[in-house]
Specification:
Ribosomal Protein L9, domain 2, 4-stranded mixed sheet, mainly beta, 289 residues, 4 domains, 24 strands
């Protein structure tokens, strides 16, 4: 009579229920009711590979009438699944990125991942704003030969850097038009540049009255500026009184510290002579009564 252990399989990390046996050569209604099956691969810690299933000690009815031959079966331990996922990360344009590690899911038996290669096209300081894949590969550690490893990408987000464009302060004398004096920038990286900024001020016209006016900067143009959140800071245009004119007869003297009101401006414009002239510590509105 021949008793053959059935082949079986399991996943690494599982214990195995061996797959039984089959008997050939029995006669006269004799039977095998049990066979001892053993394999060194049946424990959960058995590494991936093929192991012998040994059959022995058949018991049943009428078995004393047989010479029993035992035939081994094969237990196959297959790889377990392991998922290694690159962690998401973020950085500011112009910075180099330290990628933020990984997570591992599916380890058993005290196995471990001690390192993973992480790479991203967005990790360099010159990478433009946007989202980039973080690729994980080449995991190493303990017991990893027992796993089919699946790598899942993370995402590296490159956010805009801050750029400040500040209009330069300027001054002019009443009656002149103003050539606004440019701008300064702070925050540019990677050789990026601002080649132009639109500057406007209500005080730039020749008819603008004495006082202080905002110089508004906007619409910067240049190289690489889509990688920045741009903040514009106003400058100041100071319009000063013209001191080369003789005072008109009559008029109203105002302290240099006083604020000119709408009525003052109306009077000054009444006879088409909206000029201001200086006296020591004072200004005089031409055309005032």
């Amino acid at each position: 009579m021949t008793v053959t252990a059935n082949d079986a399989s399991k996943i690494y990390g599982q214990t195995s229920g061996l797959g039984g046996y089959r008997a050939s050569g029995l006669v006269n209604g004799d039977s095998v009711s049990g066979v001892a099956l053993a394999s060194s691969g049946s424990v959960a810690t058995a590494n991936v590979g093929d192991y012998t299933i040994v059959a022995s000690n058949a018991d049943g009815t009428g078995l004393g009438n047989y010479d029993i031959t035992y035939v081994d079966g094969t237990l196959t331990v297959d790889k377990a699944g392991l998922i290694v996922t690159a962690n998401d990360a973020g950085k500011i344009y112009g910075q180099a990125s330290g990628l933020n590690g990984y997570t591992a899911n599916g380890l058993v038996n005290g196995d471990s991942v001690s390192g993973v290669t992480l790479a991203s096209n967005g990790s360099g300081a010159t990478a433009n704003v946007g989202n980039y894949a973080i690729l994980a590969s080449n995991a190493h550690g303990t017991g990893l030969g027992n796993y089919d490893i699946t790598y899942v990408d993370g995402t590296l987000t490159v956010d805009k850097a801050g750029l400040t464009v500040t209009a330069n302060d300027a001054s002019k004398t009443y009656g002149q038009t103003s050539s606004l004096n440019g701008y300064t920038t702070s925050g540019l990286v990677n050789g990026d540049s601002v080649s132009g900024v639109t500057l406007t001020s209500k005080g730039s016209a020749a008819t603008a009255l004495v006082g202080n006016y905002d110089i508004v900067a906007r619409d910067a143009t240049g190289v690489g500026l889509s990688n920045y959140d741009i903040t514009y800071v106003d400058g100041n245009l100071a319009v000063t009184a013209h001191d080369g004119l003789a005072p008109a007869a009559g008029g109203v003297w105002k302290s240099a510290q006083d604020t000119l009101g709408e009525e003052d401006e109306r009077r000054a414009l009444a006879n088409n002579k909206p000029f201001l002239s200086l006296a020591p510590g004072y200004i005089r509105l031409w055309g005032s009564n």
